[in-house]
Structure formats: structure tokens, C-alpha cells
Design brief:
This protein is mainly alpha-helical. It contains 12 helices and no strands. The two termini are about 30 Å apart.
């Protein structure tokens, strides 16, 4: 029988290595996205009765297809994760279940298991509210999808449309409740300022958490509190 705690430890280490050193050529090194998604996935799994091992493993590896330049391709993502999981002593069933979590996490297909729903929702909760604005702007900047020196109204709309699209695809009741709590309404000028600043800092190699620190002085007290709760996951304590 495998030591699942040891396997999870190794899976988390692999996920962090890929996220920090490979996915964006080292530009995302030090960010806490993966650790937050893992913690939220564990929380959601316990809330809805999903298999914690599968959900946490899937969460730890959910972005492992990013080095290919596209993590939206369900079939390709499954191949990538199954290849990575060969080094672990897992059953074929567990490999398939973890692969499903990874392949469907972007919402391009409907997750086929409760654990995949959990991983999908844990990742979506990083894409709502102010943290979502920062993270999606960071991703678009580092994929050269927007020009940080010339942020247009269309770019801002692209960021916020993506956030709304992801939010509407939430599947578990607890995640839907969390997303509603974390959401903020921004005036047009402030939305553009946040996207512009996030893109500029992202282009300089600044990670999410430090971008947030730079934005605090431009936010209302309520907005700062919501962003801090997203970053430190203190909102989870309110739902226990």
C-alpha cells in the first residue's frame, strides 16, 4: 500500500517546481497561487465529501500544462499529466482521476468527477475579486496578450469578461458562496488603473503578492480587506 502522504509531498514539490521554474521561465517564482489553490481544494473537498487525496493532488498539479503555452486543451492536458504521474506509484484509477482534475480545471469542458469540480472551483476562486484581476492581467501580460505600456479599454474588458466567465462556471455551493463574498464592484477608471498597474509590474517580473502590495494605496479599505482575505485565505475560517 502506498504512503499517500509521502506521494502528496512529492507531487506538491513537483507542482511548485514547474510553477516557479518552468511555466513562465522563472517569472512566477515565489508566488503563492499553487499553495492557495491546494488549501482551498482541501477545504472544498472536505465540505462536499470529495476524495481529499485526489483533489489535493489535482490541485497541486493543475497548472503543469502551462509550459506548453496552453492549459485549455483537455486532451493534451491529460497526456501531460499522465506522463508526469508515471514516476509515482499510483494505481491506474488514481492516475486517471488526478488527470481528470488537471485536464478540466480551466472550465473548457465540464469536470467529470466531484474531485475535478473541486479543483476547478479552487482555481476559479483565484480568478474572482481583485486577486482575479491581478492574476489574469499577469497571465495575459506574460503570454504577450496585452501591451503593459498601452492598456486599452478593450484589454480591461477582456480581463473582467474572463473573470465573469470563470465565475459563472463555479460548480460547488461553497465555492459559489465564497465567490459572491469576494467579488467587488469597481468604477471604470479604477478598474483600468488596477489592470494598468498590474500589467506594468507583471512585465517587470513582479509576482502577484507584491503587485497587490503596490495596489493597496489605490484601494478603499473594503477593497484592501477583501484582497488581503484572498491572499491569506482568512475567509475560509468564516465558513468552517
Amino acid at each position: 500500500m502506498i504512503d499517500k502522504e509521502l506521494v502528496l509531498k512529492k507531487i506538491k514539490e513537483l507542482g511548485i517546481k514547474i510553477d516557479h521554474d518552468v511555466s513562465f521561465g522563472g517569472k512566477s517564482r515565489g508566488n503563492k497561487h499553487l499553495s492557495r489553490v491546494v488549501r482551498v481544494a482541501k477545504f472544498l473537498a472536505n465540505k462536499c465529501g470529495a476524495d481529499e487525496f485526489i483533489a489535493v493532488a489535482g490541485a497541486a498539479l493543475h497548472d503543469t500544462a502551462l509550459p506548453t503555452g496552453n492549459d485549455y486543451d483537455y486532451v493534451k492536458n491529460k497526456k501531460v499529466i499522465k506522463k508526469l504521474l508515471k514516476k509515482f506509484d499510483l494505481s491506474l484509477q488514481d492516475v486517471e482521476r488526478i488527470a481528470e482534475c488537471v485536464a478540466s480545471h480551466e472550465g473548457t469542458v465540464k469536470p467529470k468527477s466531484l474531485e475535478a469540480q473541486v479543483v476547478h472551483d479552487a482555481d476559479v476562486l483565484e480568478k474572482v475579486g481583485l486577486l482575479g484581476v491581478i492574476r489574469h492581467t499577469w497571465k495575459l501580460t506574460n503570454f504577450n496578450k496585452i501591451n503593459p505600456q498601452n492598456i486599452r479599454d478593450h484589454d480591461v474588458k477582456t480581463v473582467f469578461d474572463h473573470i465573469e466567465w470563470r465565475k459563472k462556471k463555479l460548480l460547488t455551493p461553497t465555492a459559489i458562496k465564497i465567490a459572491s463574498y469576494l467579488s467587488v464592484q469597481l468604477e471604470k477608471e479604477k478598474a483600468k488603473l488596477i489592470v494598468s498597474m498590474s500589467a506594468t509590474l507583471a512585465a517587470r517580473g513582479v509576482v502577484t503578492e507584491k503587485i497587490a502590495t503596490g495596489l493597496y494605496k489605490h484601494l478603499s479599505q473594503k477593497e484592501k480587506d477583501k484582497l488581503r482575505e484572498q491572499l491569506n485565505l482568512s475567509y475560509l475560517r468564516k465558513l468552517r
